[in-house]
Amino acid sequence: MARRITTTRRITATAGGWLAGFIIFFPILWMVLTSFKTELDAFSTPPQFLFFHWTTENYGIVQHRSDYIHHAMNSIILALGSTALGLLIGIPAAWAMAFAPTKRTRSTLLWMLSTKMMPPVGVLVPIYLIYRDTGLLDTHGGLIFIEFMANLPIIVWMLYTYFKEIPKDILEAARMDGATIGKELLYVLTPMAIPGIASTVLLNIILAWNEAFWTLNLTTVNAAPLTVFIASYSSPEGLFWAKLSAASTLAIAPIMVLGWFSQKQLVRGLTFGAVK
Amino acid sequence: MGKIELVGVEKTFGSVNVIKDVDLTVEDGEFVVFVGPSGCGKSTLLRLIAGLEDVTRGIIRIDGLNVVDLPPAKRGLSMVFQSYALYPHMSVRSNIGFGLKMAGMPKAEIAQKVEAAAAVLNLTPYLDRRPGQLSGGQRQRVAIGRAIVREPKAFLFDEPLSNLDAALRVNMRLEIARLQNSLGTTAIYVTHDQIEAMTLADKIVVLNAGQIEQVGSPLELYEHPQNLFVAGFIGSPKMNFVTGAAAEKRGATTIGIRPEHVATSQTSGEWDGVVSVAEHVGSDTFLYVTVPEIGDITVRAVGELALKPGERVFLTPDSTHIHRFDRDGKVIVQ
Amino acid sequence: MGKIELVGVEKTFGSVNVIKDVDLTVEDGEFVVFVGPSGCGKSTLLRLIAGLEDVTRGIIRIDGLNVVDLPPAKRGLSMVFQSYALYPHMSVRSNIGFGLKMAGMPKAEIAQKVEAAAAVLNLTPYLDRRPGQLSGGQRQRVAIGRAIVREPKAFLFDEPLSNLDAALRVNMRLEIARLQNSLGTTAIYVTHDQIEAMTLADKIVVLNAGQIEQVGSPLELYEHPQNLFVAGFIGSPKMNFVTGAAAEKRGATTIGIRPEHVATSQTSGEWDGVVSVAEHVGSDTFLYVTVPEIGDITVRAVGELALKPGERVFLTPDSTHIHRFDRDGKVIVQ
Amino acid sequence: MATKQSTTLGRILSAPSIILLFLWMIVPLAMTIWFSLLRYNLLDPGQESFVGLLNYQYFLTDPAFFTALFNTLILVGSVLVITVVGGVLLALLMDQPILGRGIVRLMVIAPFFVMPTVSALVWKNLLMHPVSGLFAWIATLIGVQPIDWFTNVPLFSIILIVAWQWLPFATLILLTALQSMDEEQKEAAEMDGTPALSFFIYMTLPHLARAITVVILIETIFLLSVFAEIFVTTGGGPGLQTTNIAFLVYAQALLQYDVGGASAGGIVAVVLANIVAIFLVRLIGKNLDA
Amino acid sequence: ATKLTIATVNNGDMVRMQSLTDDFKAKNPDIDLEWVTLEENTLRQKVTTDIATKAGQFDVLTIGTYEVPIWAKKGWLVPLDNLGANYDVDDLLPPIRAGLSLDGKLYAAPFYGESSMVMYRKDLFDKAGLKMPEQPTWDFIADAAKKITDKDNGVYGICLRGKAGWGENMAFLTAMSNSFGARWFDEKWQPQFDQPEWKNTLNFYVNLMKEAGPPGAASNGFNENLALFNSGKCGMWIDATVAASFVTNPKDSKVADKVGFALAPNNGLGKNANWLWAWSLAVPAGSKKADAAEKFISWATSKDYLNLVASKEGWANVPPGTRASLYANPEYQKAAPFAKMTLDSINSADPDHPTVKPVPYTGVQFVAIPEFQGLGTAVGQQFSAALAGSSTVDAALAAAQATATREMTKAGYIK
Ligand SMILES: Nc1ncnc2c1ncn2[C@@H]1O[C@H](COP(=O)(O)OP(=O)(O)OP(=O)(O)O)[C@@H](O)[C@H]1O
Ligand SMILES: Nc1ncnc2c1ncn2[C@@H]1O[C@H](COP(=O)(O)OP(=O)(O)OP(=O)(O)O)[C@@H](O)[C@H]1O
Ligand SMILES: [Mg+2]
Ligand SMILES: [Mg+2]
User: Fold this and answer.
1) Which of B46, B52, B81 is the best mutation test for D, with the most CBs of D within 10 A?
2) CA–CA dist B190, C77 (Å, integer)
């Protein structure tokens, strides 16, 4: 297929691609633009695209009003913590399923996924009561645990599909070399699966970062992440669009930057073994 | 020391019996090659010895000790895989030294042994590269380095050369032969390449459908195949088989004659046929001759023979090299 | 009809000149094989002819018509890929018929042509399977079926057999030869397998670093290589090259002598050496002999020769088969 | 590697996650089942009494239930269709020789990183608002009546927002699948003279089948519990037009604080989800194995 | 130091309070404050779950007039007996105080109070030759709305809430229905949506909005209408009195200098269509920090706090609607043109007798029973469907009646 690509084709494709990309990105762009407007400009018609009075006062207000850093730190702790825990438990499980499969492996995997089908609100009260009695409400540990549980099926599945791509010869070679299973996991499998693990990590960070039900309902102050931060800007009384836009921009900025920088990894991992 | 004995070894996957009651003794220092058609169980047998699979029944003894319940690492064997199975994230040095590290050998000693192995295999300049930065042949040498550095009781090779191109294959074959010779370590080698088997083996084991058809030195197998299967399997091009009158005349159900043992003539001979294809490969010419009532016969003739397809030719089998088989395919000993 | 002419064809990838000013004529019905070391541009040249790559410079004529600006489909050629490139989700039938369907042929006619092609290739029982359910050889046959059903002006093959095992390779080689013979269609075939090239080709094109080294029939190349490269490349085992005194004595910088043209003797001969390895492959024995001041010489001797490593042996090159080369590696014609 | 040892080890190593997930499933589930048999209002603590299947009876005979069920299926189905079709088209586009492809890809991925609440608010207020939204302005610009999104096509509006969030996911997976297509196969088709459309139908689509399966499976799991977008934009209305099962359960749990009713609803949702799951696995299971 | 965790809603006055706590800290160095600021619905969920399960995560709760009587009755709140000597409980506006008391005891201190009223565009009225009476009737409102509607120029006569929700459209419609003589339940808790009063209310509302309302009304809540009004799209808007300070703030509003105020309309039946709400601070029962909590509440709802805000941010930004003394303050009257109207609106609401006909419940724009949130939302969905035109008024009422009967039966009110 290395035939000459005609200029027309390149131009059409470029125009089409940019148009599509722009349309899809537009809501976010618009949000970011809005965050630099005054509340009055934010809903004025006709809409102001670029020639409005640019102001950073919304960011000032947001910063002044709530502790962005505190919430962002909590989001980071939550995302990293739940992912780390997920890897710790998920890697051995995925290893077992990929390299020592039994007849039930497939159904186990599907069962794991099916645990994600319960609407969280349906089990809120039981979980809340358990958390209350174990003192886990509004603790990092409690939140990390619940996000970990919510994402574990995805972690195991992703790692599983990724591990299956690793030639089992290599693990056998390690075994012939006298490695125990632990060492095999540590020295051979994990380093080889770094790209897959990286993408698993990424996806889970994104999922944990954006999860808004448990984070809102099980935290108050100490462990409250950015979803809570956002929730304090969608006020039912008062004008809030520009401020909300500013807060939202702040809330998604870290994950967006992370995602953009590592999109290659993300793309790989997201495929869930769909691509051979 | 490295004597390996298999007694009544069986292996079933699910309900399929893949290895059927195999008895085999590999003497210390011997180079044994398993050959057989694809799917006959060569790899499986090797992996049973390695401990990568559990035997279903039977005993495997290494130096007299039954190892069926030992994990691979405890059997003291090294394996070279078809895919090399190098650790892609480790340098050549770490690849070779990994087994020693796992055995808890001190670093200095590992370094020294790795250097020594690398020197033997001409890998010294590449010690700090990753496998991905090596050529196929170099990778294969790393895999071998990994095997020898542990000074195992025996080497196990599973088609180690099949991923190399023809020229490299010849070189590596020679290297493996030299190495095993100088180390004197027992080796079991799986291949489906005729030439490899013939040139490397002290002893060839011909497997078919999970059973041993014949065990013997390469020339024994070439000269005295005990049944049709081995006769057809060993030798290239394949032995010609003739049934019917020509065989009965010699008191057999089937007779076999190798292409190199058929004489051609343009004037007279036992069989009278027409050349269908003539392959000139420089040094030799292979003729595919259609003989009425006998069938297609392959003949290896001298290189410069100028026969063209469609020409008539007379063939005469060399009677001292005719193999006779009975109805069950067993050889008839005169 | 299917005459293909290349005039001054060049191809550059970025700044790398991969094909350098190639002129070549393939006559109608001819079977031409491209050989050469890996990376020399064989595939690229084939793909230029197919139209899968654009030429950087030069003209490609098919039946007199310059096709460099035509898309592949319009050139009337069929290609068989190394990986077979079958459509995995289609049945064998649809795979073979796909090109015809794309050409808008009526269904009934397609069905009939597919059946015919399948019959020729013994694929009839498998017509409704998917490629994934076929063995390697069967897949290869489907790929060939896909090529022949379109009745192209020429077949293009890019290492079509390299994914098959040795035994199958021999069979498929014969099948391709027969098929091309009976159809009489022009064929261009890329391989790096000696034997394939020698046995299939009417004409071999030896490529090296994007240039044609020599064009000729297999025997021409075997008997009269025009330079060191071709001499070393054609023939297996490789020709022995000797420089120094032994060459000067014959008025050349280098002389070449094929392993099959060296006579052995245990009593006397021109060169006096020691056997380092002796490979017995039944029909032949290959000796690797170390001769002081000359180097390692490979010798092909008769099968039953009982020489062991370490034994002394005398060698004499057959003087009628000595090739002489000058300082630039060009052959010296007497 | 199928030795007894490794199988045993495999069991041991997968045990923690299986046990944890099992507990995570069974403990709340058991409690939920128990609660679903009680008259239990969070605002009336200490008044719990056993009522048998009454909560189920109420939940299932709720006129809202079937509408919600229907809406859930429509929502999931439409978003799947939009994201798969859109994803395929976008992936095809992104596979073209676009100048600055990296940046375009970044723009296309971006919605995946946005929290559901944020995107719902942005869409509702900044874009879709029939008076001050951008779409309304565009409509007036070209002289048509602005669409009153959440009044006239509420469910479609929700579908649009959710689809926007999931489109990048589908596009990415499909794009990767597309790029993994065998080069020689493409060339074979080229030699066969396949026109672009036929190539798409006969080559591309079948090649993407497995990737599409994965998109469907993963998205379904997440889409069954879409909630934030509805809550923020329409509150399930007008009427019941945008009420799905998750929202219905929400209303029971966090508006009525009727733990009994919500638990019954939750159990019903789980049963429904599993029916969908079984159906899905049937439909695509073999595709996943290959 | 004692650490108080305060759950609060993110409305402007509360947010302002957070920034003024230095004053409190200066006076109470041994008390630390920690804020959980959330959007109203989320806050209500969290606070309710917390108090109902006795999880005890909060020391001070921000709750409304809806929750206070219900929770007080359950004993979930601490009566505020120790607000300090100079707190002056009697200064609280009587309707507000009544809404926050049970059996004469105050269970929550009002932080700010609100009612609803008509906000209108004086310029548009002038142009149409209309004059807004101080106490308009619904007929006048409907008539005026139609007259000033100019859809071609994007001006709509009236903006009213339409988004489904017990605190959204149902707050407005319940208050409106009161003025039409309707009620949610009769004395036996039988739903009354099958009665003509409700039919009149809803017909009037739907017709009015169809003729003179903005598009998309069915998903408009307070904020959407605020944005519409501020950008000059609405001729009238009937909504919470707190909106007054937003619409008259030139920084946020394009029409700041053109806004007039009037009491919520009536139908001559003796009840106005206005509501009564107060965001209030309360202490959950069982809090171990009740003393500190009360100290804080006392500070935040005191007269001094009002003065503090006035001195820092100006009188216009003082939290309204809680104290009579504020409305007597001439400075405040000057700074807040809407002050009198707010006070009158609040005073005309009677949470204990909200309707024309007798009812078994309290609450003006809500029914103070725990089931109301769910029920109100379900009914609200039906009514928003009628507004959107996807259902008829009759069908919506029938559905509302059925739902209400079901829920009330399930909850055990109807035997
Ligand atoms: N893990 C397994 N489960 C089930 N069957 C298996 C397994 N491994 C191998 N087999 C079957 O056992 C038989 C022998 O396989 P084996 O790999 O030993 O053949 P082989 O002689 O090495 O063939 P090849 O030359 O193709 O490598 C085959 O029929 C194969 O399908
Ligand atoms: N698309 C490409 N872009 C850049 N370089 C290329 C491209 N395709 C081939 N080459 C280079 O052109 C040279 C010739 O490649 P080609 O594939 O024709 O070799 P070949 O003779 O077919 O080798 P092999 O026997 O390994 O298949 C190689 O050096 C290769 O790296
Ligand atoms: Mg094998
Ligand atoms: Mg090539």
Assistant:
1) B52
2) 42
Cβ-based neighbours of E288, under 8 Å, separated by 6 or more: none
Provide CB contacts within 8 A for C41, sequence distance 6+: C11, C18, C19, C207, C209, C210
- How many structural domains does chain D have? 1
Task: Judge whether D3 lies within some domain.
Answer: no
Q: Quote the CA–CA distance of E71 and E107 in Å, as a whole number.
A: 9
> Residues B238-262: pLDDT tens digits?
899 998 888 888 888 999 999 989 9
C18 C-alpha to ligand 2 centroid (Å): 7
Output the domain CATH number for residue D276: 1.10.3720.10
Nearest CA to C291 among C306, C261, C270? C270
Q: Give the Cα separation of D13 and A182 in Å (integer).
A: 10
Task: Please check whether residue D27 lies inside any domain of the structure.
Answer: no
C-alpha closest to that of D188 among E156, E250, C157: C157
Three-class SS of residue E402? helix
What whole-number distance in Å separates Cα of residue C303 and Cα of residue C289?
A: 16
SS3 letters for C202-249?
CEEEEEECCEEEEEECHHHHHHCCCEHHHHHHCCCCCCEEEECHHHHC
* Domains of chain C, each with CATH number or no CATH: 4-225 (3.40.50.300), 237-325 (2.40.50.140)
D2 touches chain B (CB under 8 A): yes
Which residue pairs from C248-251 have beta carbons closer than 8 angstroms and sit at least 24 positions apart in sequence? C250/C322, C250/C324, C251/C324, C251/C332
> What is the number of CB-based contacts under 8 A between chain B and chain C?
79
B43, B53, B54: best to mutate for the D interface, most D CBs within 10 A: B54
C-alpha closest to that of B84 among B129, B41, B144: B144
Nearest to B73 among A167, A175, A191 (CB): A175
Subunits with 3+ Cβ pairs within 8 Å of E are: A, D
Residues of E in contact with D154 (CB under 8 A): 219, 388
CB E127 within 8 A of CB E347: no
Q: Is the CB of B44 under 6 A from ligand 1?
A: yes
CA–CA dist E284, E55 (Å, integer): 10
Q: In this predicted structure, what is the pLDDT of residue B311? A: 87
What six digits make up the tokens of A250? 């702040």
Give the model's pLDDT for residue A275: 46
Q: Do A237 and E222 touch (CB under 8 A)?
A: yes
- Which 8-state DSSP code applies to residue E77? B
**Which residue range forms the structural domain that includes residue D198?**
53-289
- Asked if the structure places residue D48 within a domain, the reply is no
Q: Measured in whole angstroms, how far is the alpha carbon of residue C161 from the centre of its chain?
A: 11
Q: E194 CA to chain A: closest CA distance, Å?
A: 32
Confidence of residue C216 (pLDDT cuts 50, 70, 90): very high
C57, C8 Cβ separation under 8 angstroms = yes
Q: Measured from the CB, is residue B41 less than 6 Å from ligand 1? A: yes
**Region D240-245: what's the mean pLDDT?**
84
pLDDT over threshold 50, residue D134: yes
Q: Which chains touch B (3 or more CB pairs under 8 A)?
A: A, C, D
Q: Do chains A and E touch (3 or more CB pairs under 8 A)?
A: yes
Written as one letter, the residue type at C267 is: T
Q: If we measure between CA atoms, which residue out of E44, E118, E167, E114 comes closest to residue E279? A: E114
Least CA distance to A172: which residue of chain B? B52
Find out whether B42 and B15 touch, Cβ atoms under 8 Å: no
ipTM over 0.90? The verdict is no
Domains and CATH numbers, chain A: 65-270 (1.10.3720.10)
